[in-house]
Amino acid sequence: MRFNTRVLFHIPDLTIGPNDAIYLKGANGVGKTTLLKILAGLLKPSSGVITPKHGGFLNRLWSGAGRKDVIYLHQSAYLFDGTVYQNVVYGLKHRRQNAHDKRADVIAALRLVGLETLADEHVSVLSGGEKQRVAMARAWVLKPSILLMDEPSASLDQESIERLVTMAQDLLDLGSSIVVTSHQANKLTTLCRKQWWIKDCTLIESPLLQVIDKSDINQSTINQSTTKQANTNQESTYAATSAD
Ligand SMILES: Nc1ncnc2c1ncn2[C@@H]1O[C@H](COP(=O)(O)OP(=O)(O)O)[C@@H](O)[C@H]1O
Ligand SMILES: [Mg+2]
Question: pTM of the prediction?
Fold first, then answer.
């Protein structure tokens, strides 16, 4: 990717696979936001192509049901003039679903982010953390194949971070993929199993090694039998190649 004559990064190729959880890290200004916007289709790379690959009948069927495939969650929540409820239900306006089911989805999302009692409030009265939770709820109801979260925890209080972690984990359990950018590790990045590091104008990919203690292992063995089965039918992958 180049801005005027300046080469920001050169990434020969990269792929987001089904159910990937990727921590995109790098110092300020290396191009994390730019890469996410390219992946979301909001920015055109100066050279190279983005190839969404959607395999499988089930996946296409799901798309037809209003599934939005790639969602970019902006660093500071981008909400429109309206109530909390209106902002979340907005994403469902093209979905072929009756009003009652839409309402149930929105209320479930608001409950997950702890904002159901504020459903009828205008978004202007919310704190920054609450606005970010509304944006996350709006993304969650759409059940994207890929959710791109740009510095989601930068200015959030502990409760908001934990609510975002719950939603991101739920999407992962459903088979979605997530990419989380942050210049430092936090509770959201601990969900990630893979790391992309933008450094020296390129991207280095590596597995993310987690430090876990014994009690976590015992707990996870118990949880495994109760966790929802990840949607292994999902065949969507996302690939980007660049010659720049
Ligand atoms: N539209 C643009 N035109 C020119 N330069 C840009 C543009 N967008 C971003 N940049 C520059 O690209 C660099 C990387 O920005 P960004 O992707 O926001 O980095 P990060 O998210 O890693 O902090 C910055 O130096 C920024 O000024
Ligand atoms: Mg950024």
Answer: 0.83
Tokens encoding 58? 């089930």
Amino acid symbol at 161: I
Residues that place a CB less than 5 A from ion ligand 2: 32-33
Question: How far from the centroid of its chain's Cα atoms is residue 196's Cα?
Answer: 15
Instruction: Give the three-state DSSP class for 225.
Output: helix
Sorted by sequence, the CB contacts under 8 Å of residue 7 that are 6+ apart come out as 1, 201, 244
How much distance in Å is there from the Cα of 173 to the middle of ligand 1? Answer: 33
Q: Whose CA is nearest to atom 10 of ligand 1?
A: 3
Give, for 158, the enclosing helix (H) or strand (E).
Answer: helix 158-173
Q: Which amino acid is at 26?
A: G
Instruction: Report DSSP state, residue 190.
Output: G
Which residue is closest in CA terms to ligand 1's atom 3? 3
Single-letter residue type at 29: G
Q: Looking at the DSSP assignment, which residues form a beta bridge with residue 190?
A: none
Do residues 22 and 194 touch, judged by C-beta distance below 8 A? Answer: yes
> Residue 157 burial by CB count (10 A; 0-12/13-18/19+): exposed, middle or buried?
middle
Alpha-carbon distance of 220 to 73, in angstroms, equals: 29
Q: How do residues 162-219 score in pLDDT, each as one tens digit?
A: 999 999 999 999 999 999 998 788 899 999 999 999 999 999 999 886 655 555 555 5
First to last CA, the chain: 6
Q: Where are the alpha helices (DSSP H) in 142-231?
A: 158-173, 214-226
Q: How far is CA 159 from the centre of its chain?
A: 18
